[in-house]
Amino acid sequence: MSVQRRNPAPGGGLPSAESDRDRLIGLGERSFQKSYYPELRKRLQELEHFRALLDHSGDLIFMADPDTGRIQDCNQTACRAMGFTRQQILGMGLEDIISEADAFVVPGENGSRIVHGVRTARGGSLPVEATRVQHVVSGQAHLIIVARDITARLKAERALGESEALFRASFEQAATGMVLLDLGGRFIMANQALADMLESSPKELAGRHLRDVSHPEDMDMALERHASFVTDQEPTHQYEQRLLSKTGNLVWVRLHVAKITGESGQALSIIAHIQDITENKRAEEQLRHQALHDPLTDLANRTLCQDRISHALLRAMRRPEAIFAVAFLDLDRFKIINDSLGHPFGDSVLREVAQILAASVRSIDTMARFGGDEFVLVLEDLTSYGEAVRILNRVRKAMAEPMLLGGQEIRLTVSTGLVFGPGESVRPDDILRDANIAMYKAKEAGRGRMKVFNKRMREQAGVLLSLENDMRRGIAASEFFPLYQAIVRVEDSTLAGFEALARWRHPTRGLVNPALFIPLAEDSGLVVDMGRSILTQVAADLRRWISMETNGHGPYVAVNISPIQLARTEFVDQFLKIFQDQGVPLDRVRVEITETCMMANPERALAILNRLREQGARVAVDDFGTGYSSLSYLARFPIDMIKIDRAFISKLGTDEESLEITRSIVALGEKLGRVCVAEGVETNRQHLMLKALSCGFAQGFLFSRPVGAAAAEVLMARRGSLLAATE
Ligand code: C2E
Ligand code: MG
Ligand code: MG
């Protein structure tokens, strides 16, 4: 028989522990003390334990009448949680306490669930997870409701949800690219910024693999880094790689990767922050490029060229059969183009030269510009020495083709010095020096030549390299002097005049030709002082010759004036003064200038030439046909004499074109009232042809080589044909 049935507690609930005990003890005292007391006491204790267990349960426990819903009992936890006394609760109906109306829906990851609310004394509602079971005791059914307070859990869940939302928002809206990868390198999710970088969408990227977006050249590196990062101990890691966007655009990125670890520290996934550094890389690349390239032509600069030569040397050290060649190219008389046609024009010529080089060499060859008109080629992987020569001949041939630039026809020649490696020199600078020495040797031999370096050249080069200093000293020491070459009438080979040609009597090198020192003198500006020295001596010689004349009809002297000299503002005054000081009338003087001289600054050139002519001097255009002038200049300029370049005259008997050109120049001269002088006449045949063409004057070894002043006086004394004189 149950206790509660005998003594139902008010409200139909379980009797309280105290009242039960009191009653039982009373009974026991009276009726069952002897036989049942110990048993009852034990039961009572059990009941008390049971009660205590219930009261200390973390859950709210209620017992209710299944029919009426009246609460019959509850534990202390329920009282505490609700803030009611037990008595108050026992009076309530189940619906008052835990009503369906208070139930609310909690959204969760695996679908939403319903949470009930337990009413509290303060009018609030305690979220609980409740179970209800029917329990039958001695035929009487009871409803047992166990409700677990889930306030804390809901709070934690909410916090988790919030932090998840926060993560998602910061992931999705981050300005840098972000991707969550599984350990195998597959994308779990990617954000919009990364999608933008790859011209894709986050949806498209999910499920893709690191492999799918990596640049082919960086793929192995990227996969290897990912794999080793997954297994190593480092929590984070940084590296750079190239990605390819959906449309194939290259994207340079910096990745900061971090592991997302589980409770035991094992890696679960990888998160990567991906920063687009394409612009930085481009800027970096540009800087690097600029540091190693010539800004004008975009060819390699000296630094890069030296590096390539080092590379060739290293390879040759490993494999002695790996021959290479270094060629030093210098444009002939480029300074004149620059000075006469202007620097912007000179620049476009240099750019054109770079193009010509690029079209003539192999793709593996290095082309460099060392500033000015100096170019260097590094030819590696040669099968033979002959191959280098073939490549350079190709370059020289292409270079010799007339170049049409801004309406001007330019003819270039290039002097080339060639060094083969591996040789004795093992430093790039030494190899370059050797190539440079060979180039100077080529220049010395005349325009458009190529010389292969040999050791003897190096010995001679010491002198050559100090030539500029020597020249400065030599001018002061009067080592420069004129030789005179006769200019004759073609008709009867009688003397008409002389051309003064500078020579340098070097104390150790002997007689040096202008082909070597004039370019050097022009480059250094020393040509001004040298020119003055030559002019002074010419003026002195002329004065002496005039004083010896009986009829006052002696030969004239033509002097060569470099564009560098002509460009000096004081030139005309100095020139006039030199001859006036000697009392030499200027009608005995011819000024030889090249075509390009007139074109740098036509107005200025015109003014200078006019001034010289006013004083009686005559003007000759030297090396006609090789320069860059248009024929209209010839008509516009106050020119008296055209000197047809030796290039045409030397081929007169052999080359139809040269003959035609010479014929046209002579005809043109006649039309414009200019006399023509054929330069470099060496054979009788050439002389005869000139006669047939009615060319007025000639100059050349056939009549006389350039000779000293005394020998010139001997020529003057001859009255008749100089041919007869030399025969
Ligand atoms: P250029 O004014 O055209 O002088 C003619 C050159 O042709 C001279 O060379 C002369 O020796 C050479 N020549 C003459 N006839 C023949 C021939 O039949 N066969 C061959 N193979 N050559 C012949 P050079 O004396 O070596 O002078 C070279 C250049 O140096 C001159 O060319 C001139 O442009 C320049 N130059 C010479 N003297 C002076 C000077 O005092 N001042 C300046 N600024 N330049 C000078
Ligand atoms: Mg001349
Ligand atoms: Mg000439």
Task: Describe what you observe in this structure.
The protein has 727 residues and is an alpha+beta fold. It has 31 helices and 27 strands. It folds into four domains: 17-155, PAS domain (Beta-Lactamase, 2-Layer Sandwich), CATH 3.30.450; 178-282, PAS domain (Beta-Lactamase), CATH 3.30.450.20; 293-453, 2-Layer Sandwich (Alpha-Beta Plaits), CATH 3.30.70; 468-719, EAL domain (TIM Barrel, Alpha-Beta Barrel), CATH 3.20.20. Helix content is 46%, strand content 25%. The strands form five sheets. It has an eight-stranded mixed beta barrel, surrounded by five helices. A six-stranded antiparallel beta sheet has the order 2-1-6-5-4-3. Helix 17 (428-444) links the parallel strand 17 and strand 18. Helix 14 (334-341) packs across helix 15, helix 17 (428-444) packs across helix 18 (455-465) and helix 21 (527-548) runs parallel beside helix 23 (571-581). Bound molecules: ligand C2E and magnesium ion (2 copies). One magnesium ion (MG) binds at residues 499, 560, 592, 622.
